[in-house]
Design a protein that fits this description.
heterodimer; A: alpha+beta; Jelly Rolls; CBS-domain; Four Helix Bundle (Hemerythrin (Met), subunit A); four-stranded antiparallel sheet; B: alpha/beta; Nucleotidyltransferase, domain 5; 5 strands; 44% helix
Chain lengths: 620, 225
């Protein structure tokens, strides 16, 4: 190649997707191009090109508009412009206009097709659908981890040995011998082909020896009968989170209805040093709020490690929230130890991101107390003290006091069931701005400690009300459209609706909140009990509240945006900085920008269809 | 008109030219000045030389690129280093970065020039401050093929001067330099100072100048001559 076209080659080499081409192909690429100059205000793509081309912007800017003339994107140096090379992609064909004097390189569609057929990585960029591109990007993120297995390995593959089992009539002594011979810490008890129960080392110790039970008694006397199980294809990481949440160390593994074996925490820890479960173990042993604060100080480290191992935002959210749950529970136990048993049953409810299991290391605290209806007025002193201790404890652990005072220590949010029912009744019947503001807390609620099942009653009432009230759902829909994702990126800026530019953007409020809000509307409109955004989307698709594709796309968008946010925060934490949600386009690789833009456009599409369905404009 | 006179002179010279590269070049008619500039063919060219005097100094390199209407065709981009006699003066070597060693790897001008004439056949020449290119190429043709270079030329610097004069704004000589003008039109800035990137910059400048004068209905080439 002529050495002088090196500058054009260098330009291509520093822009996606040409940076994916091998050196040798890049050398010859400038010679395949031609150059055009379009004055500001010219139609784009130019109408007089005789052969179809891909347009690569070298200098200048192009504004792309939809049929109604709304600005949908702005292109700058290095961007690929709408082109007739992609007849199957309408978003690549929107008409535009140059908003600056513009120099473009033209690559014939024919040459583009050749490059795509020869270079898979290059071709990925032109992947047919936005959702297909996102799916691929997510797969890459998962693979990009340090290879440690829990994110990818299934529990089926962690079962080292044949199923060791016995019958309920076996003596405790004989069962212990079986365990000893097989060198295992748990034993499955089968009655005919049915899973009847399980015993562990701990049961032998606590329920037999310490309890003075004769070893000649049948194992039935000491086995755990109500068992949680996992399916064989569950990811190791999910099993770990389930164990962490249940605070158990063994889970029987089931394939359909067949018992395959038992997976233990030590099996999982062998695959990956499982910090979450260690942290939870420490939490349940902690004797004071100070010790708990020490333990919660390790959460940022947990986030960093999970990011490094290729965990997605959902997995990290699950892990961090499991630790927060355990801390909350332990604080409640400590408070009860100090204050004595509660006068009437109560339920500690977590709201917001903890309820959705989407916390990152150190979120604010949002919580409330639901108390049994037969509480007497004087009982409130007990619950006020309990709430104060737990709220203070959480604050000391880094879950700072809720700025909006949505906490159990606030008397307004510490009420018996009938008052809570009235609250929700009012919010749903008269959806005022205040109610909408609180909706992200109170329509995402999860019981953390609920011995008498108070929460189930409240939830059932709320869902029956919300599902039936179309006007309420319309208000929630309008509220869900308040946070719009950016249009994309333009040079060093984030481009937002209306054409304004910003240097940074809040990835939480512009990327994650819109999806969380959408999922909440779908869940409430179908009366779904799920709180987690991904679970809500999947359940809503099952219930027909949105299309399967729509749900799958939003799940991918949420995972991609959330994961970029987790990575951004992990980078900050590793540098010893405070983690925040502000991303600048400079922090992103061109590829990441492309994926984010895809995710934004998916959210935008779903917001628009929701807006049309509920004519949400009427309620804003 | 001078333009018609040029075509007449081409035919006159064609009849007298001995067989060879110059005769081949002259055998194709020049693009008529009445034609729409968007339907005309051009070659943008730039030379690096050992100095400014065509009688004394030598061509060190030629860079050119073909323009079809309003579209630069990079597949035609060509750069030729020329072997020179004697040492390259240090003061010019600083600018074009062509050293004696590098120049020694070059092509004989007698081989490079026919290549360029082949590209120029039936096309208009674009150059920035074209008198240098016309002077050196003319002298080379005379020496190698016995006659000077007859060519229809668009000088992007002359166009720029006319635009500035018409606006009646004060300007400095440096405002007329290729890179300064490129900046005005939002064109890319090429770091390397060499014949091909300058030829490309001149071609881009011409497209920009034309686009800014064209009201969308096209213009005659004559407007740029």
């Amino acid at each position: 190649m002529d050495v002088e076209l090196i500058e054009i080659r260098d330009f291509l080499a520093s822009h996606a997707p040409f940076d994916r081409l091998p050196e040798e192909t890049l050398e010859h690429l400038p010679k395949r191009l031609s150059v055009r100059y379009l004055r500001r205000g010219s139609a784009f793509p130019p109408t007089d090109d005789d052969s179809p081309c891909l347009y690569i912007l070298r200098r200048g800017a192009v504004e792309v508009r939809d049929d109604e003339g709304n600005l949908v994107g702005k292109l700058a140096e290095g961007d690929l412009c709408p082109s007739p090379c992609h007849p199957d992609q309408p978003q690549m064909q929107m008409p535009g206009q140059t908003s600056e004097d513009t120099l473009v390189y033209l690559l014939p569609c024919e040459t583009l097709a050749q490059l795509r057929s020869k270079h898979a990585e290059f071709a990925e960029h032109f992947e047919q659908s936005v959702s297909g591109r996102l799916r691929k990007a997510l797969a890459n993120i998962k693979e990009s981890g340090d290879g440690t297995g829990l994110m990818t390995v299934q529990v089926r593959d962690l079962l080292g040995r044949e199923l060791v089992s016995t019958t309920p009539d076996t003596s405790i002594e004989a069962a212990a011998k079986i365990m000893s011979d097989a060198r295992c810490s748990s034993l499955i008890i089968m009655a005919a082909d049915r899973l009847a129960g399980m015993i562990t080392d701990r049961d032998l110790r606590n329920r037999c020896l310490a309890a003075g039970l004769s070893p000649t008694e049948p194992v039935r006397a000491i086995m755990t009968e109500k068992l949680h199980t996992v399916q064989a294809d569950t990811l190791g990481f999910e099993a770990l989170i389930r164990m962490t949440r249940l605070n158990v160390h063994h889970l029987p593994v089931i394939d359909g209805s067949r018992v395959l074996g038992v997976v233990s925490t030590s099996d999982l820890v062998r695959v990956q040093s499982a910090n979450a479960i260690y942290l939870v173990g420490d939490v349940s042993k902690a004797g004071s709020a100070e010790t708990l604060a020490d333990i919660s100080g390790k959460l940022p480290e947990l986030q960093i490690q999970l990011v490094a191992s290729g965990a997605t935002a959902d997995q990290i959210g699950q892990a961090v929230s499991a630790v927060t749950d355990a801390i909350t529970l332990r604080l409640l136990q400590l408070a009860e130890e100090t204050l004595g048993p509660p006068p009437v049953p109560y339920c500690w409810m977590a709201g917001g991101s903890q309820a959705r299991r989407e916390q990152s290391s150190h979120s604010d605290q949002d919580n409330a107390l639901l108390i049994a209806d037969h509480m007497k007025p004087e009982d409130d002193a007990y619950f006020a003290a309990l709430a104060r201790m737990v709220n203070d404890g959480l604050n000391a652990c880094g879950y700072i006091y809720c700025p909006g005072d949505v906490m159990a220590s606030n008397p307004k949010w510490r009420k018996p069931l009938n008052i809570w029912t009235k609250y929700f009744n009012t919010w749903i019947k008269r959806p005022e701005p205040m109610a909408l503001m609180l909706s992200s807390v109170f329509f995402d609620l999860r019981p953390i400690c609920d011995t008498e099942g108070l929460f189930g009653e409240l939830q059932e009432r709320v869902l029956n009300l919300s599902k039936a009230d179309r006007i309420f759902v319309a208000y929630m829909a309008a509220n869900a459209l308040k946070h719009r994702p950016p249009l994309g990126f333009f040079r060093k800026f984030v481009l937002i609706h209306g054409g304004d530019h910003n240097h940074t953007f809040d990835i939480k409020h512009r990327g994650i909140v819109p999806i969380v809000d959408l999922a909440r509307v779908y869940a409430l409109s179908s009366g779904l009990a799920e709180t987690n955004t991904l679970e809500r989307l999947k359940a809503a698709a099952e219930a027909g509240a949105l299309s399967k594709d729509g749900a799958a796309n939003l799940v991918d968008a949420a995972e991609l945006i959330g994961t970029l946010r987790m990575r951004h925060q992990a980078r900050q934490l590793r540098r010893g900085e405070q983690a925040d949600n502000f991303l600048s386009p400079d922090d992103l690789s061109p590829l990441e920008r492309g994926h984010l833009k895809d995710a934004f456009s998916l959210i935008n599409t779903m917001q628009e269809s929701l807006g049309q369905r509920y004519q949400a404009g009427r309620f804003v | 008109m001078a333009c018609f006179a040029l075509e007449w002179r081409r035919r006159w010279r064609l009849r007298r030219a001995p067989p060879g590269p110059l005769r081949d070049y002259l055998s194709a008619p020049f693009p008529p000045p009445s034609r729409d500039y968007r339907k005309t063919e051009y070659v943008a060219v730039d030379l690096e030389t050992t100095g400014l005097d065509p009688r004394l100094d030598q061509i060190l390199s030629i860079g050119w690129v073909v323009v079809h209407g309003a579209r630069i065709d990079l597949s035609s981009a060509c750069h030729r280093l020329i072997r020179v006699e004697g040492d390259i003066p240090e003061d010019t070597a600083v600018i074009h970065q062509i050293t004696d060693d590098l120049a020694a790897t070059g092509l004989e001008l007698s081989l490079a020039l026919p290549e360029f004439l082949q590209a120029l056949r039936g096309r208009i020449m674009i150059a920035h401050h074209a008198s240098v290119e016309l002077g050196f190429l003319g002298a080379a043709c005379k020496r190698l093929f016995g006659a000077g270079l007859l060519v229809r030329t668009i000088d992007t610097q002359a166009i720029a001067r006319r635009i500035l004069e018409r606006r009646q704004t004060a300007f400095k000589a440096s405002d007329l330099r290729l890179h300064a003008l490129g900046e005005r039109y939002n064109l890319p800035r090429y770091g390397a100072h060499n014949a091909l990137s300058d030829a490309l910059a001149a071609a881009e400048l011409f497209l920009a100048q034309a686009a800014h004068r064209d009201n969308g209905r096209g213009m005659r080439v004559a407007e740029f001559l």
